[in-house]
Design goal:
By secondary structure, this protein is α/β, with parallel strands linked by helices. 36% of the residues lie in helices and 24% in strands. Bound molecules: 5-amino-5-deoxy-1-O-phosphono-D-mannitol. The site of 5-amino-5-deoxy-1-O-phosphono-D-mannitol (M6R) has 16 residues, from helix 10 and helix 17.
């Protein structure tokens, strides 16, 4: 979860570090800190509990002696509460070494005991300070930061990205990674390290992936990568395909508002270049080979949170279009129960960040057991795609708000492309059927753009409901995962009780929750759907309204049958059933954001959360 940035070059390091931390703050915002080596070779640090703004204001009021080498950290607390003392950097070698960390060092208690026995004192409750003291001691013995870090990483267990600087080696930043993210930004006469490319995209678009159990030493004019055994490696480089402005708020009131407005573009860009002659053309998938694709007898989707709900929507489509059984599992439940996998199982992971630890571990587990793995991911250079046999990137652009919005619609789009591709290759769809579905998918961005117009109406509703303590969401078929998504947004943003239910489940228990005034959002399927789901959901509405529920229906334009039964109707454009979720979720994204705003809450950085959950 924490955000990490390192810099060496010719610029003032404090500005570079604070700029990088600003763009990484979504990863954690319990505390922030920097360490820089000044022009005289002294190490200076500053750190504070609370959001980055507190550190920034303090540095503006009392600047740190600056130099051209430094590291910065924004924290999501694991070991030890969010205090000044527990904020990173932590020091070693009598204050000459500074170290920052993302992850959890699982054997820290044992190492701490050893360090206490040898006379060290601790100033924090963190596991990180153990690493700082160990690297400090190793530096004293070796006189070299790379050698010191190499010695120590081999003693650590768990997940970590570590960055360190030492006053006796200005012009050097050393980083190491195991199961936590780290990428290198390649500049001219300067180099960068970051938890993701957002840390340095303002200065360079050239980046290098660092693999698992690798260590990097950056200097202004060189980048050296070795594995934890000390052998040199040459990691792949890549170009970042978005600009720093994409990760800026611009004139928007919040990143979330901006990112909801980008939902049409997220879908459009995820489709772009992936349709040839009206059919889906995903070389990332076809490269697995037609035999492999035809031999798949089961798809297993693994993901967490919103990404899992996107997977649930995808399940309906892949099963329908490719005629392959599809299961969806929360990644953290998956690998602790010895799941049945075979080489004919295609395990599809979905992750915006590509770093979610639970999902990453599930992918590794599946791969080790012989399943084929494909990731749907939004972040270049992330770990999960690297650990997978194939990757389909969503092109939603950087998502900064902790609550996922545009990534959700892009993920659904990617699962649809996958379902269509499998349906085409396996002959489950005729070309005409596939072309019809592709055309409908291509029409979604324009329809989505019109749904953005519901924002003002939702804002009024949210203000009217600012004191609401519980909201329920009902959906059916592909509307069910959308109901879950609507409820999750309210929990994480507005901190109120919210539940999503499959509408058909209502009478099996949840209807007992209905009492006068209970607000219920209902995703109403199209009345044109031949399976008569519309009339079933309208019956559900009647049942809850008879018990006093206040119903807000999300229904397609022209559905007049729903009017007598709902207190409010939010309209979405006509679309066939599989494409409704992409449209119907927008009002729910707005609602979560607006209810949080109406309550005066921080929309982009809800309490206790971090954007990327890189610990289990
Ligand atoms: O980066 P990922 O897509 O793997 O993240 C998965 C979940 O942590 C994420 O979707 C989370 O549920 C969001 N905060 C929901 O808005």
């Amino acid at each position: 979860m924490c955000g990490i940035v390192g810099y060496v070059g010719t610029r003032g390091s404090v500005d570079v570090l604070l700029g990088g931390l600003k763009r990484l703050e979504y990863r954690g915002y319990d505390s922030a800190g920097v360490a820089v080596i000044d022009a005289d070779g002294h190490l200076g640090t500053r750190k504070h509990a609370g959001k980055l703004g507190i550190l920034t204001d303090d540095l503006a009021a009392a600047p740190l002696a600056d130099g051209h080498t430094g590291i910065g950290h924004t924290r999501w607390a694991t070991h030890g509460g969010p205090t000044d003392e527990n904020a990173h950097p932590h020091l070693g070698d009598d204050g000459k070494l500074a170290l920052i960390h993302n992850g959890i060092i699982e054997n820290f208690a044992e190492l701490k005991g050893e360090l206490l026995a040898s006379g060290h004192t601790f100033h924090s409750e963190t596991d990180t300070e153990v690493a700082a003291l160990l690297v400090g001691d190793a530096f004293r013995a070796t006189g070299d930061l790379t050698a010191a870090m190499l010695q120590v990483v081999n003693r650590l267990e768990g997940a970590f990205t570590l960055l360190a600087v030492h006053a006796d080696q200005p012009g050097v930043v050393v980083g190491a990674r195991r199961n936590s993210p780290l990428v290198i930004g390649l500049g001219e006469g300067e180099n960068f390290l970051g938890s993701d490319v957002a840390a340095f995209v303002e200065y360079t678009h050239r980046a290098m992936e660092i693999g698992q159990d690798q260590l990097v030493t950056i200097r202004p004019d060189s980048v050296e990568v070795v594995d934890f055994g000390g052998a040199p490696v040459a990691p792949p480089t890549f170009e970042v395909d978005w600009d720093a402005s994409a990760a800026e708020k611009g004139g928007w009131s919040s990143f979330m508002a901006k990112e909801i407005s980008e939902e049409p573009e997220a879908v459009a860009k995820t489709i772009l270049g992936r349709v040839t002659d009206g059919l889906v053309d995903l070389p990332e998938v076809t490269a697995l080979g037609p035999e492999v694709l035809r031999s798949i007898d089961r798809v297993l989707i693994i993901a967490c949170g919103t990404a899992a709900y996107a997977g649930m929507v995808g399940k309906y489509a892949i099963e329908q279009w490719a005629r392959i059984p599809v299961d969806v599992e929360l990644a953290h439940e998956f690998r602790y129960r010895e799941p049945v996998l075979s080489p004919n199982t295609l395990v599809v992971s979905i992750s915006q960040s590509g770093e979610t630890m639970d999902t990453l571990m599930a992918v590794k587990y599946a791969r080790e057991r012989g399943a084929r793995t494909l990731s749907i991911c939004n972040t270049q250079g992330a770990t999960i795609p690297r650990e997978s046999d194939a990757v389909v990137y969503t092109h939603a652009g950087p998502e900064v708000a902790v609550a996922s919005t545009k990534a959700f619609v892009a993920q659904i789009t990617a699962t649809y492309l996958l379902g269509l591709q499998l349906g085409q290759v396996r002959g489950a769809l005729t070309d005409d059927e596939a072309r019809g579905l592709v055309a409908e998918l291509q029409a979604v961005p324009e329809k989505l753009a019109t749904v953005l117009g519901v924002g003002d109406r939702i804002k009024e509703l949210a203000h009217w409901m600012a004191d609401t303590r519980s909201v329920l969401f009902l959906g059916r078929h592909v509307g069910y995962p959308v109901a879950l998504e609507g409820a999750l947004k309210l929990k994480e943003l507005a901190y109120i009780h919210a539940e999503g239910f499959a509408a058909g489940e209502l009478k099996h228990g949840p209807i007992a929750l209905i009492e006068p005034g209970q607000v219920v959002f209902v995703l109403v399927p199209s009345p044109r759907d031949p399976r008569s789901l519309h009339s079933k959901v309208v019956s559900n509405i009647q049942e809850i309204r008879a018990r006093g529920a206040r119903v807000i229906a999300i229904a397609e334009e022209g559905d007049v049958a729903v009017l007598p039964h709902a207190d409010e109707v939010i309209r979405i454009p006509l679309a066939s059933p599989f494409f409704e979720p992409l449209l119907a979720v927008v009002p729910l994204h707005y609602f979560g954001m607006e209810l949080a705003s109406a309550k005066g809450l921080d929309v982009d950085q809800p309490r206790n959360l971090a954007k990327s959950v890189t610990v289990e």
